């Protein structure tokens, strides 16, 4: 289906990238096939040579997966994409497609634990030197970037403390040495932030989060320009096999249809919960990008179109109080996932960032009293009442 470039995001999320079979189905077709047949041996040869367009094997490409990739491209404003089996597969594929032995790579210390593991543990095994910095400090970015810095990776907002990184400023710095900037946009989503328009070269998502948004399947996606995807990513993707399941691609296409509605509603509720929590004497710190008291409120207004579905806060009383509050909540579920239709809360120090050394966690502002809340689609009044009764038990 030809997409009108003037369509708004909500329209692209419903119609973008749709390819109909000869049956003319309304919903996107689900092609659960491993391979494809050819009209002749000559046609097979031509397809493998790249002289004839068409599908070869679902590990390389698949019609349902292609629809998901195209819809994401139209939403993000990217030229090309590759869908992966998970968000971490997307992170790993993007980073590994940037570097080789002898190169240098830079990233903030404030990263999801698995992302930090790739940069701190895996890259050095293959001869790539890495530097971790305070991503909010541009002077540290300037000091870290070298002539052989081939890539940089960042999250903004970060997980779980919702710090922001100036995407445009970092992109300008990394481009001076010919490197590529990879941005994990999962917390902001494409609804509230467009990293490519801010100067980033690559955007990645864990589609498991808001894109699915209903706890059903895993997925990820890498988006960038056509040249880099075809020349650097495609062979890495083709030969190492992080491809997305066609069934998951179909589920994620359905999720995209309601992404705009869900994220806007969840963000509105998150702002209300942030107001309620910050008024509590039992909350010692609250971080929400949509509030004027966020440490980087001006940057949030500059590069984000809205707050977030996420709220982070510290609770007086440390781990005991954090656990007691989490256990007392009746509507909000305990889970390390996020972006779901159901509100979810987690204690990062003992879950998502448990593998990060305590000293490093504290440096990032993640203490035993820190909780991360992913706001869902429940009625705001019910969620506020749930937190009020839980706080009363702390």
Describe what this molecule looks like in 3D.
- This protein is an alpha/beta fold.
- The protein folds into two domains: 177 residues, Aspartate Aminotransferase, domain 2 (3-Layer(aba) Sandwich); 134 residues, Aspartate Aminotransferase, domain 1 (Alpha-Beta Complex).
- 40% of the residues lie in helices and 15% in strands.
- Strand 4, helix 7 and strand 5 form a beta-alpha-beta unit.
- Helix 11 runs parallel beside helix 15 and helix 13 crosses helix 15.
List the keywords.
single chain; 394 residues; alpha/beta; Aspartate Aminotransferase, domain 2; Aspartate Aminotransferase, domain 1; 2 domains; seven-stranded mixed sheet; five-stranded mixed sheet; 40% helix; 15% strand; globular
Q: What is the CATH superfamily of the largest domain?
A: Type I PLP-dependent aspartate aminotransferase-like (Major domain)
CATH class of the largest domain: Alpha Beta
Strand/helix succession: HHHEHEHEHEHEHEEHHHEHEHEEHEH
Mean pLDDT: 96
Rounded to the nearest angstrom, the radius of gyration is: 21 Å
Please indicate the count of domains: 2
Biggest sheet statistics: 7 strands, mixed
CATH architecture of the largest domain: 3-Layer(aba) Sandwich
- The strand order across the widest sheet is 1-7-6-5-4-2-3
Measured distance between first and last alpha carbons: 55 Å
Derived structural class: alpha/beta
Put simply, the count of helices is 15
The unreliable regions are none
CATH topology of the largest domain: the name is Aspartate Aminotransferase, domain 2
Helical percentage: 25-40%
Strand content: 5-15%
Global shape: globular
Count the E strands.
12
